[in-house]
Amino acid sequence: MKVAYLLGSLSRGGTETLLLDLFVNAKKTTFEIMGIHRKNGELRDAFYKTELDFYQLEPKFPFDPIYLYRLRKLLKKNRVYIVHAQQSIDAVYVAIALIGTGIKVVQTFHGYDMKCGAYPLFIMKLSMRCVARNLFVSYTQKSYYQKKYSLKENQCGVVYNGVSFDKLDNFEKKSIREELNIDKNTLLLGSVGNFLDVRDQYTICLFLKLLKEKDICFKFLFVGKASDSAKYQKCVDFCCQNGLETEVLFLGSRIDVPNILNQIDAFVYASDHDTFGIAVIEAIASSLPTFVNDWDAMREITEDGRFATLYKTKDVNDLLNKMDDFICHIGAYKENAKVASLEIRKKYSIESHINQLFAVYNLIK
After folding, report:
1. What is the pLDDT of residues 208-232, one digit of tens each?
2. Which end of the chain is more exposed for a tag (fewer CB within 10 A), N or C?
3. Nearest by Cα to 198 from 110, 92, 286, 266
């Protein structure tokens, strides 16, 4: 069975990271893999270095007939059995391109429809009816879409995201404290994730202001690019206005995230409406005491706080209280984090993700 994965771009994001992990671990699958993308991005070289069949096809305008013809021809030539789209527009494109071929199409929803304009919403609704299966990355997300769009159970499925934990264990070790001139006795906290509407880095900034007022000696690292410039600037301005310039460091996009996770003392995350939270899984898998708000999807992936410390969403005082307890009992938290790491690695490995995908593909044969 050969499966073609469609990507919009090869930028550094959660979806792209997941697909790259899948491609790197292609030998662990019981099906063949190829990829097709429309646009380039920071991860282009990494994808092409996997040496799997990878192609770039880009429409010159929406529903470009030449693009659809080339897409159909490429998929038939490679004897693809299933096409797996990561965006609704790609699901619609390929469903049209493959009319009459018998090739099945599935799509994964990686986000919510919040702030979705009229045209993207139309495409999303159309895509739901064009595919053999709509996949979601958590039961929380699946329930939301099923209820809102009256999707039948046999139209839907859940495939948890997976992480290639090899990259968390095998990396070039460089001292982040030396790079940033941080004293070894300073509490080092951090968060990973691009500045997007699904995340709530501003709440973390509010918490850090309270942490400083308690005279805690700390540094906080925000790792992630300013995809939403207004959201990013709001955080930067707040930190400048409240005297946090020396405590809070905005590092932008980094390629050494595993190295950073290996050196910080605790991971802090705030979600507005994440569907899964790969960064949270990677932090827990790195044996880091992890603090995350009690958004439904976060409750699900952490098994109601069994793998992480949950705090009330947007309640900075609750987060502060949980952090106070961590500072007082840091040894116990780190021991618990080691146990959580073993559990999370079993549940959300790339191998588990591959097995779930294979089960879905077999189901729609």
Report:
1. 999 999 999 999 999 999 999 999 9
2. C
3. 110
